[in-house]
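DM from R.C. (forwarded with permission)

"hey, sorry to bug you on a friday — could you get me a structure for this? deadline for the figure draft is monday and I only need the backbone to look sensible"
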Amino acid sequence: LSQHEAFAVFALDGDRVAKVGRDHDSVQHEHDLMQFVCDKAAGLVCPQLHPCDLNTGDLSWPYGFQMTRLNVLAVETEEDVVQVAAQAFWRLAVLHEIGVVHNDVKPSNI
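My reply, with the result:
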């Protein structure tokens, strides 16, 4: 689904994705941050995390965790764009309220 130098997100079977990385501590930090957000704002801004071992067994992406895949957005009209932007800004506000600053807001992260 997306990939850059430090992390990648891959679609798994059904409604799950795996967020994977090359460094155990970075993946653990990302997982802990996601868990914190899920605990503080359950159902508002965070996909459900699924229990799994952080060791993937893959040489390229040796560490990762699984979460529920969120719906893919399709925008066709200006009204759709406004709705998506409003939802994104609202979710960022929720994150800020619980003390989390995203620092990487871009279309592929929405």
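R.C.: lifesaver. The longest helix spans residues 78-97.
me: no worries. Helices lie at 24-40, 78-97.
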